[in-house]
Amino acid sequence: MTAYRTYTDDTLAELLHAGDGEAFAEIYNRYWAIIYRHARKMTKDDELAKDVVQDVFVLLWDKATELQFNFSLSAYLYATTRNKILNLLERDKVKSNYIASLGNFIDAGANITDHLLRERMLAAKIEQEIALLPKKMREVFEMSRKANMTYKQIADSLDISDKTVKKQMSNAIKILRLKLGALFTVILF
Q1: Distance CA 55, CA 121 (A)
Q2: pLDDT tens profile 121-173
Q3: 2-98 in CATH: which number?
Q4: What is the DSSP string of 155-187?
Q5: Span 43-77, pLDDT tens digits
Q6: How far from chain centre, in Å, is Cα 92?
Q7: Which long-range contacts does 43-46 make (Cβ < 8 Å, 24+ apart)?
Q8: Is the whole-model pTM more than 0.70?
Q9: For 143-147, which contacts have Cβ atoms below 8 Å and span 24 or more sequence positions?
Q10: What's the CATH fold of domain 132-188?
Q11: Predicted pLDDT at 74
């Protein structure tokens, strides 16, 4: 193997292309530290740089018989390292964007779900309190608020005076306001 140390990069590339494992070992020993420093400078992360360099050399060995070195071995190693790092950065960017959008979706979904749950609970409480109103008062209130009928229409429908409708509505609102507090005013009006 000591003879391989004296070979030029071009000779090592030719031997590597022929599947020579010792040529690969010499290339690895000759370039590992240089490529690592290059990767470390780009990634600013020791472990990531080591992983990238490992991937570059695995790729070099896996494709050794397919590669045609129309350029220098060092240029190939530098370019492959740069491309691996750029791919990692792009993948991390996509992953970060996905995680952020997923987080936003979850937050929005949780807020919507929480809001809908509170709204349903409040609506159920309001309906419960309306159901406890005296029968005639409840009927007047529901015709006004649910059927959107005017006081005149309610009076005609129930064959009572407008003043009775106004009084029933006033009493219903007072009772509900007492039982439901400020929420009643916000929700119904």
Answers
A1: 57
A2: 777 887 888 888 888 888 888 888 888 888 889 899 889 998 998 998 888 88
A3: 1.10.1740.10
A4: HHHHT--HHHHHHHHHHHHHHHHHHHTHHHHHH
A5: 888 998 999 999 999 999 998 888 777 778 888 89
A6: 14
A7: 43/85, 43/88
A8: no
A9: 144/169, 145/188
A10: Arc Repressor Mutant, subunit A (1.10.10)
A11: 86
Place of tokens 């119904």: 188
Q: Which residue has the higher pLDDT, 152 or 119?
A: 152
**Residue 109 CA: distances (Å) to CA of 45, 104, 113:** 36, 8, 6
Paired tokens of 88: 């990692």
Opening angle at CA 93, ends 90 and 96, nearest 5: 150
- C-alpha to C-alpha distance for 96 and 159, rounded to whole angstroms: 67
Residue 86 and residue 54: Cα distance in Å, rounded? Answer: 16
Pick 160 or 101 by higher pLDDT: 160
154 within 8 A of 144, measured Cβ to Cβ: yes
Q: Where are the domains of the chain?
A: 2-98, 132-188
CA separation (Å) from 77 to 43, 84, 155?
16, 10, 91
pLDDT tens readout for residues 13-32: 889 889 889 999 999 999 99
Report the candidate in 164, 117, 119 with the shortest Cα–Cα distance to residue 139. Answer: 164
Q: Output the six-digit token pair for 172.
A: 């219903």
Does residue 188 register a pLDDT over 60?
A: no
